[in-house]
Amino acid sequence: MVAAVPTPKYEVKDLSLASMGQKRIEWAAREMPVIKQIRERFAAEKPFAGIRLVACSHITTETANLAITLQAGGVDALLIASNPLSTQDDVAACLVSDYGIPVYAIKGEDNETYHRHVQIALDHKPNIIIDDGSDVVATLIKERQNQLSDIIGTTEETTTGIVRLQAMFNDGVLSFPAMNVNDAETKHFFDNRYGTGQSTLDGIFRATNVLLAGKAVVVAGYGWCGKGVAMRAKGLGANVIVTEINPVRAIEAAMDGFRVMPMIKAAAEGDVFVTLTGNKHVIRAEHFEVMKDGAMVSNAGHFDLEIDLQALGAKATGVKDARNFTQEYSMSNGKSIVVLGEGRLINLAAAEGHPSAVMDMSFANQALACEYLVKNQGNLEAKVHSIPEEIDRNIAALKLKGMGIEIDTLTEDQIEYINSWTVGT
């Protein structure tokens, strides 16, 4: 049983959902052995004593396990949602009532509420920000200059957020260090490829119950997330088409066995579309015009700008809810286009997000990146930093240990060989 704690200020849907949230948080923890090992160490060492932290993240069972781990390390944390449709209301309720962690997140909250929650997060006067898309950091820099001196650093694990942070650095407004969790090997190789690959299709299935076998699935963007979705869709018998702007990735997709073409051509062939680019208006007016009747459009990028819903709405003669998280737009040409999850992250809007086994490594990176910022306070440049290799390898080693897998180590002779230029073949 979790010990009773004072109830903090909060905005969640219903505290009576907490008992279900607790069961689900515990279920997720079963496949998060790395976070468990880190939590045990944090509880003993208290690396965050006296530190205030704000996390703008998807309020899921996995995020809950990260928050509980940081709390064990002594942090004073406050959580807000990073996406209006990604909150799991029972988890939010549990964090408030059972762990005493202030949470401001309700599934389906409007944009006004979301931005108000960002302000509430900054009212917490954080020393560390865990961001998902860099909205909190951007708001801080634009509107809360007086709080910049309080910031030790920030961590970010989305491609969108890293692009924004780099733009802040280029513009000379990033005045504190930012840890690029997104590009850690133990994050993007696994979370992006296997997590996004599985959970995106899970969201599509829950929203539509569609059979992918034999259908043309258009994957926009062949980064690690796109690779994951393309791989899983192919495994289910789909005819996968990839669209890209990067010639190297386009070649890679072609050599992986996928057809590659511009979106304007793919739009006429696709049955199901998934955008994973981190950019805006990847699917837009000219693409909607040539789509098949009943084409399904979804997004797995962080923000809902990848699909130009405003252009679609302007062309539509009517919109109706066909199923949960499924809206059908009737077009003037007699066809219909189906939008899943309101164009937001389909894996979190209609499903539960990534499996906990992969988020175990992603959130281990978040936890250890926060610890790294605290330990190196005052010694890091105000720029975007890669996760140190030793942290990445430590997480991989902890994951292998949790999976019960052993690997080889170099012999002394092998170490000497790879470090010598005098020894030839």
Characterization of this structure:
The chain is an alpha/beta fold. It folds into 2 domains: 15-183 and 354-403, Adenosylhomocysteinase-like (Rossmann fold, 3-Layer(aba) Sandwich), CATH 3.40.50; 194-344, 3-Layer(aba) Sandwich (Rossmann fold), CATH 3.40.50. It has 17 helices and 15 strands. It has helices at 18-29, 33-45, 61-72, 89-99, 111-123, 135-143, 159-170, 185-208, 224-235, 247-255, 263-269, 285-290, 309-315, 346-349, 356-375, 389-403, 412-418, and strands at residues 52-57, 76-81, 103-104, 128-131, 153-156, 178-180, 216-220, 239-243, 259-260, 272-275, 295-299, 316-323, 326-331, 336-340, 384-386. Helix 3 packs parallel to helix 15 (356-375). The protein is globular. The model has no long low-confidence stretch (mean pLDDT 95). Its cofactor is NAD(+).
Topology:
Layout: H1 18-29, H2 33-45, E1 52-57, H3 61-72, E2 76-81, H4 89-99, E3 103-104, H5 111-123, E4 128-131, H6 135-143, E5 153-156, H7 159-170, E6 178-180, H8 185-208, E7 216-220, H9 224-235, E8 239-243, H10 247-255, E9 259-260, H11 263-269, E10 272-275, H12 285-290, E11 295-299, H13 309-315, E12 316-323, E13 326-331, E14 336-340, H14 346-349, H15 356-375, E15 384-386, H16 389-403, H17 412-418
Parallel strand pairs: 1-2, 1-4, 2-3, 4-5, 5-6, 6-15, 7-8, 7-10, 8-9, 10-11, 11-14
Antiparallel strand pairs: 12-13, 13-14
Helix pairs in contact: 1-3, 1-4, 2-3, 2-15, 3-4, 3-15, 5-6, 8-9, 8-15, 15-16
